[in-house]
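writing this on my phone so excuse typos. first protein, seq and then structure
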Amino acid sequence: MTPPEAPEDGRNQPRVKPPAASVCVPDSLTVLQNRSDFLKAARAKRQGTSSMMVQARKRGAGEATGIRVGFTCSKKVGNAVARNRAKRRLREAARAVLPNQGRDGWDYVLIGRAEVTAARPFEALKDDLRYALRKVHGGK
């Protein structure tokens, strides 16, 4: 006799595989991964807010298409747990704001700030990102 949770035929049930693509960032956004892309953004426009620093650059002709975004936090933000939490919040804010307010052909790097990025209310975090994008793109 088999235990009640075992399948009748004795074979293992197939496991559900997670999606191969990241579900954190929508298809309209591409995540920056190369250090050279981060360095290029660091030499371009930047706008600070109370909860983050946003660096943005318009890519030249022949480079990748679409909106690209990168996330980083220095060790000043805290230990690995604190840095990862801040980056998760930045990632979610970018997922919500950049598809509508970001511009095609631009790279954005969101940099977390010590103690503030992880503690700021999420709606205020998104408002900070919207404000920074308006300033970077020349709006009021």
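second protein below, same order as before
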Amino acid sequence: MKKLMVALGLLSLAGGAFAAGKSCEELKTEIAAKLDAKGVSGYSLEVVDKGAAAEGQKVVGTCEAGTKEIVYKRG
């Protein structure tokens, strides 16, 4: 669980710094590849409007010049 939290924290920081110019689908694919490489399973990633993350979701990246967010949800 600690590894997952560290991975999500790093993805969140990297997503904000580097993703402003990337398309949402490109960034979502990169985040999924990183999670899969770390052995994370049973999750979903979704692109939502900024600030629209629901309870139980964690923002792991931003895209489209900060107007959209990629949220992670277990299960």
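The chain has one domain: 2-74. thats all i got for now
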